[in-house]
Amino acid sequence: MAVKDEKRLQKRWHEVLDARGGPPRASYSALVGELERATSADLRELEERLDATLRELGIVFEVPSKDHHNTWFCDLLPQIFPSDEWNQIVRGFQQRFKAFDLFLKDVYGKREILRQGVVPIPVVLGSPNYQRSAAGLRPAGDHFLQLSGLCICRDVSGRLLVKNHYLSHASGLSYMIQNRRLLARVLPELFQSQPVESIADIPTDVLLRLQAVAERPGPSVVLLTPGVESAVYSEHGFLARRMGIPLVEGGDLVVLDDGLFLRTVSGLERVDVVYSRLADPWLDPLVFKRESHLGIPGLVHCIRKGTVSIVNSIGSQLADDRSLIHFSNAIVRFYLGESPILPAVQTYWLGDLDQREMVFEQPDRFQLRPLTGERYLQFTGDEKSWSEIRTEVRRAPHLFVAQPIEDCAETLCFSQGKKTTRLQDHIVYGIRDGDRFDVFPGALTRISATENGRTESQHGGGGKDTWVLQDVSTSIPVQEAFRRPKILPARPVTSRVAEGFYWLGRYLERAMNISKMIQVIETIEMEELTSAERRLYRPVWNRLLPPLEHAVKKGRRSMASPIERYRLMLDSSEMGSVISIVRKGMRNADSLREAISPEAWSALATLRGFFIRSRFRLEATDQEARRTTRRLSDTAVAVIPQFFATAQLSMLADDGWRFSELGQFVERAVTTANATRSVAQSILKRLGSFHSIEIELSAFLRLLGSRDAYRRIYQTRAEPPQVLEFLWQNAEMPRSVTYSLRRCAELLQASLPHSSPTAQKAQSFLEELLRTIRRVDWYNFFINENEINFRLLRHEELLALLDELLSETHGLHHVITDNFLSHQSIISDPEPTLF
Questions:
Q1: 615: exposed, middle or buried (C-beta count within 10 Å: 0-12, 13-18, 19+)?
Q2: Is the pLDDT of residue 7 over 90?
C-alpha cells in the first residue's frame, strides 16, 4: 500500500478501540474481554454455528456476478450505541425525515425551493429519479414518506454524519432483525448483562402503520417485490412472512373497476395498501417504462382515484438522489429553520463545473458514485484507468457525485478465530405514526468483507447485530410491552404462490415415484429370480415408465440395465429424468422461498445438494452406475417424505401449503390411473396364462409400493379384478385413486370458503368422479374358471372404461388450474366474484 494510503487509513475513527491497538471503549470492554477469553478453536466453532444458523434461517444476499453465492455473514461482536448517542441519531433522523417530506411536497407542488434558488433546478428536474407523473398525485396518508432508512457514518473525529439516504426504500430492514436472531441463538449469554432494546415487534409495528394510511377500515396490505431475481428477495419474503401479508409480484395484481385486486385461489380480493420494494419506473407500464413486466398496468390510475395507497409514494425516490446530499443541510434550514443535527458527509455534485474540476485534481481524496445504486469509481493509481473514469463522468456529469474516501469507521471483528479490522457504517430505520416519526431501536451495521473493502452488501459485505442500550430511567416497564393487541390478519393465498406449491408437490411426488421404482428394481435385480421371472418382471418396468419428450420416436425407454437406470436418475439431458424433475421442483421452491419454513427448506437443500454433487458420466461402468443410482434413489425416497412431514409440522396450513399436498395427491392419482391402464392392456392379452399374469401383477404392485397392503386386504394372489378394485376403489390405501381424490377434496374444502363458486365447481367435479369410480364393478368384466383362471368377457369395454377414467382423472388438473391458478373459469364468467 502507498504511504499516502497508509496515512489516510490511520486517520479513521475506530468504533471499538480508543486508539489503533488500544484498549476497548467502556461500552465494549466487557464484551470484548469475554470473546478474547475464548480460544481460537472456540471462536471458529461459534462462527461455524453462526453460518449454520444463517443457512437454516434462509438469510441470503445473492450477487448475480458471484453465481448466486450468499455473501452475507454476521460478526460475533455486536455494535453498541449508548442511549445518549442514540438519542442524537433519533433527533437527527426525525429532523431530516420531516425536512425531506416537505421537500417532496414542494417539488411536486409549488416548487418554492427551486424558485428561491436554494437547490438548482437541474438537480431536481434533471434527476432520473424525478417522476413528473407524481405531480398531482395524493400521496399515502398525505405524506410522501412513511417507512424510511438513513445511512450514517463517522468522520475521523467520531462525529456522526449522514452518508446516504434510504428514505424511499428502507433497504436492509430485515437483515437488522435477522442479525439479532442469529446472535441471540448462538450467543444468548452476551445479552444477559446488557439492557438491550428489543426489535422483535418491528414487523407488527410496520403493518399497523401501513394499515393506518388506507381509506377503508380493515384494509388489506401486500408487499410488492420484483421477484426471485432480486438480490434481496429473501428480505422481502422475511418481512412479508413476519408481517403476515402476501408477498406479491406484478402479475399477481390486476386493476378492475378503478380498484386493485389480488388474484387468489378464492377469487379476486381487494388491495388497499401496497408496500412497494420496486423502483418507480417499473411500477406501471402505462405511465412509466412500457417494457416493464414487473409492475401493474393501471396502478397509477387507482392511486389517482384514491382506491389504493402505495408506500412510499410515487416520486419519493427523488429523496434518495445522492446529488441532494450536497444540498441537504440547506434543505433542512430552508424548511425547518434549524441547523442539521446530523450534518451530511462532504459531497460534491459533479454537474457543477467548479466542483467537478476540483475533484478531478485530487483523485486520491474522493470516490465517484452515481446518483443511486452502490456502484463506485475510484482512483487506484493507474492514470489510464482514471482517464477513462473522467471521460465517463464528463459524458453525463449531472449523474455523479464525489464523496470522501474516508466514509467509514473502523471496527473490531472476529474471523477464522482471530481478531481483525473491518470498515463499517450503519442504516437506521423509522416509520411515520401520524405526524410523529418513530425510529426503531436498532440498525443494520454493515461491515466490509476485507480490511479495505466496501460496506455495501453488493460488494460482499456482512453485518453486526446492533444494540441500542436502554436508558433505564425512561424505559417502558416490561409488562407494558405485553399489552399490545395481537394481530391475526387474514393471509390470502395468491394464485402464483398456490401454483408454485402445486407444482412443487407434483414434481416431488413424481421424483419420489420414479426413485422408488428404481430402488425396487435394483433390489429385485439382486434377488434370486429365474430367467422366466426376469422376462416377466422387466416388461412391467418399461410399461410404467412413460416415453421421454425428446425420445418419442424411439418409443418407450427401457430400465432393464443399470446404465439405463443411471441415465434415468442423473442424465439432465433427459427431460423425464429424476434430476430434471428435481430441478423443476426446486425452481418452484425458489419462487416460494418466503413461504417455506427454514426447517422444510433444509430438507429441500439436502436433496438439491445430493444431485448437484453427483455428476453424470457417460463412461460409467455398470458397477459405478448401480452404486450412484442406488445412493441417489435412497436419498430421494428418504428426503422427499421428510420434506412433506417437516413442512406439515413447521408451516401454516393456510399459507399455500395445502396446494403442495394437493399437487402431491393429483400426481399420485394420475400415476396410479395411468399405471393400471398400462398393465391392464398387457395382461388382457394373456388371460389364459395365470402364472405369468400373477407374477406380472405382483411385480406391478411391488413397484407401486402396494403389494403388502394388497395381501393384507385380499389374502390371496394378485388377480386382475381384485388389483383393479384395490388400486381404484380402496378408500384406505394411500396409493389408490379414490384415496387420492378424497384427499384432494378435503384439501380444497379446508383451503377455500365453501361458498366460493370456484370451490363448488371443483367439489362437484370430484364428487361426480368419485361416484363414477364407486359404481364400477370390476368383476363383471371377468369370469373365474375353477378359481384359478380368469377370462375376459368384455375386453374392449374394459379398456374404454379405463381410458375414460384416466381422462377424467387427468381432468382434475385442469379443474384446479382453471379455477384457482390461472382463473380461466373466472375470466370466462361475465360476472366474476370480486370480494
A1: exposed
A2: no
What is the predicted pLDDT for the residue at 545? 60
Whether the Cβ atoms of residue 404 and residue 345 lie closer than 8 Å to each other: yes
Give the residue from 234, 257, 186, 253 showing the smallest Cα distance to 596. Answer: 234
Q: Are 417 and 43 in contact (CB under 8 A)?
A: yes
- Mean local confidence (pLDDT), 642-647: 91
Q: How far apart are CA 372 and CA 390, in angstroms?
A: 19
| Structural contact between residues 592 and 493, judged by C-beta atoms closer than 8 angstroms | no
Q: Is 21 helix (H, G, I), strand (E, B) or coil?
A: coil
Q: Which residues contact 148 (CB under 8 A, 6 or more apart)?
A: 97, 166, 167, 168, 170, 312, 429, 430, 431
State the Cα–Cα distance between residues 501 and 655, nearest whole angstrom: 10
Residue written as grid cell 388438473: 813
Q: What is the CA radius of gyration of the chain?
A: 32
310 backbone dihedrals φ, ψ, rounded to 5°: -125, 135
Half-sphere exposure of 408 (CA within 13 A, CB side): 22
Give the integer Cα–Cα distance in Å for 143 and 285.
24
d(CA 666, CA 653): 18
Is the link from the previous residue into 819 a cis peptide, with omega within 30 of 0? no
Nearest-angstrom CA–CA distance, 442 and 459: 23
Neighbour count for residue 76 (Cβ, 10 Å): 22
**Contact assessment for residue 186 and residue 53, using Cβ atoms and an 8 Å cutoff:** yes
Closest to 495 measured CA to CA, from 733, 145, 752: 752
Only one residue has cell 434413489, namely 633
Q: Does the predicted TM-score (pTM) go above 0.85?
A: no
Q: What is the DSSP letter of 494?
A: B
pLDDT in tens, 112-136: 999 999 999 999 999 999 999 888 8
Instruction: Write the single-letter amino acid at 300.
Output: V
Cell reading at 48:
461455524
Amino acid at 323: S
Per the structure block, which three cell numbers stand in for 241?
412472512
Tens digit of pLDDT for each residue in 343-381?
Answer: 999 999 999 999 999 999 888 889 898 887 778 888 777
DSSP of 656-694: IIHHHHHHHHHHHHHHHHHHHHHHHHHHGGGTT-HHHHH
- Separation between Cα atoms, residue 708 and residue 713, nearest integer Å: 9
Query: Residue 822: pLDDT above 80?
Result: no
Q: Report the pLDDT averaged over residues 155-159.
A: 90
> Where do we find the cell 408487499?
223
CA distance 441 to 469: 9
Rounded (5°) CA angle 190-192-196: 85
Answer for the pair 413, 35: CB distance below 8 angstroms, yes or no. no
From 660, 467, 543, select the one nearest 79 (Cα to Cα). Answer: 467
Q: Compute the distance between CA of residue 555 and CA of residue 625 in angstroms, rounded to an integer.
A: 23
pLDDT, residue 551, reads 42
Sign of CA dihedral 682, 687, 693, 697: positive
Q: What span, in angstroms and rounded, lies between the C-alpha atoms of 321 and 124?
A: 9
Tell me the CA distances in angstroms from 380 to 363, 389, 763, one per residue in order: 9, 11, 68
**Closest by Cα among 317, 227, 210, 315 to 273:** 210
**Residue given cell 391392464 in the structure block:** 680
546: phi then psi, degrees, rounded to nearest 5: -70, 155
Q: How far is C-alpha 494 from the chain's CA centre?
A: 14
pLDDT at 477: 40
Instruction: Output the pLDDT for position 835.
Output: 30
Of 254, 339, 359, the closest CA to residue 296 belongs to 254
Would you place residue 255 in the very low, low, confident or very high pLDDT band (cuts 50, 70, 90)? very high
